[in-house]
Amino acid sequence: MKRLEAIGDGVFAIALTLLVLDLRVPINEGIKTENDLFRALIDLTPKFLSYFLSFMTLGIFWTGHAAQFSYIEKSDRHLNWLNLFFLLFVSILPFTTAFLSEYIEFKLAIGLYWLNIFALGIIILVHWNYADRQNFLTISGEERETVGFAIRRRVIVAQSLYAFGALLCFVNTYVSIIFIVVVQLNYAMAVYSGKKKIEKM
User: Fold this and answer.
1) Which residues lie across from 72 on neighbouring strands?
2) CA 168 – CA 39 distance, rounded (Å)
3) How far apart (Å, rounded) are the C-alpha atoms in residues 80 and 77?
4) Contact 82, 120 (CB under 8 A)
5) Closest CA to 148 of 75, 93, 97, 197
6) 3-state class of 30 per DSSP?
7) Three-state DSSP class for 72?
8) What span, in angstroms and rounded, lies between the C-alpha atoms of 77 and 154?
9) Rounded Cα distance, 49 and 181, in Å
10) pLDDT digit string, tens, across residues 36-87
11) Reduced to 3 DSSP states, what percent helix, strand and coil does the chain have, rounded to the nearest 5?
12) pTM of the model
């Protein structure tokens, strides 16, 4: 289990680092005054917004991934591959982030990013359900039911809100992104949570 957690932490760390590489200091021969530099900095707003969005995304999924493994004591080939497929979509997030920051006013960019989040949510849910069915968990009885319900509820509600946020791109792409960021901040800061049991997930 330690090897699975170690490779997961490593992939998350690399993905988080790659995100910042899309942020580059503006180099423009036309920048001659403070106002020129300020306007160039403002032009980077889509990249900063996309960076923050994805940093929150990875932070939330890393927390959920770690929380699941705190209850899992055994694994097999299938669970290993589910974990690897989850990490596949973690590792591709820097690309969908860069794509979004470059084409932030396009609905396709929002849709592609949402598909990345959707895949992460589906796989982490399947990962938990498989571990539960195979009795790989350290908990049992009422606690197992409570934790399982909290994890499934959290993933399903979050994915529903992300889907709604993605649909807001038909109104305005910036409104779509800001809504998703607000959802993420809620989950990260536990502003609203139905049960104390899931605050650490």
Assistant:
1) 137
2) 28
3) 5
4) no
5) 197
6) coil
7) strand
8) 26
9) 9
10) 889 888 988 999 999 999 999 999 999 999 999 999 998 999 999 999 999 9
11) 75, 0, 20
12) 0.87
